[in-house]
Amino acid sequence: MNACIFGRNLNSSYFIMMIRLVSLIILSFCCLNLSSGQVKKILHQSFEIEELNNIQLDLVGDYEIVEWAGNAILIETSIELYSASKDIYNFFKKEGRYDVKADTLDNAILLSSFDKERKPIKTKKGECFEIIRVRVLVPEDFDILDQNNLIRKEPTTEENSN
């Protein structure tokens, strides 16, 4: 007894050939999608500021300063790489491409990009498209003077009496 699907005999060579063709197309699509994909990562770095009163920023590219309820500075770096593998991302991460370093000077902390140039990423297939978004989360007891300088707010009289 022969089984039938959609009116086709399962033993027919046509049906077997179609199954193989569909399987090959699906496998090809999966391999193509994995070979040159998109890498999305979010990195976090935190910096304790304790009693420091000034924050100076020297970061590459555009960034957003956001106040938050924490007592440390948090740098959130969102990275999107197109036409690149995870290995390429891991290499550049290990090299410090997305790192922010901190130096303390007197009563201030200077946060600066480790890689000041960020040259385009090139592979055998060409240049990779890279999107980097940086958010600098600072404690809400700091005033934003400009895009590069922040200063701790003066305590209110209620805070001084406690």
Report on this structure.
It is a single chain. The protein is an alpha+beta fold and 162 residues long. The chain folds into two domains: 4-34, no CATH class; 38-154, no CATH class. It contains three helices and 13 strands. Strand 7 (100-105) and strand 8 (108-113) form a beta hairpin.
Brief overview:
It is built from three helices and 13 strands.
Helix and strand layout, with pairings?
Elements: E1 4-5, E2 8-9, H1 13-35, E3 38-48, E4 54-58, E5 63-68, E6 72-82, H2 86-94, E7 100-105, E8 108-113, E9 122-123, E10 126-127, E11 129-139, E12 142-146, E13 149-152, H3 157-161
Parallel strand pairs: 4-8, 5-11
Antiparallel strand pairs: 1-2, 3-6, 4-13, 6-11, 7-8, 9-10, 12-13
Main features:
162 residues, alpha+beta, 2 domains, five-stranded mixed β-sheet, four-stranded mixed β-sheet, 3 helices
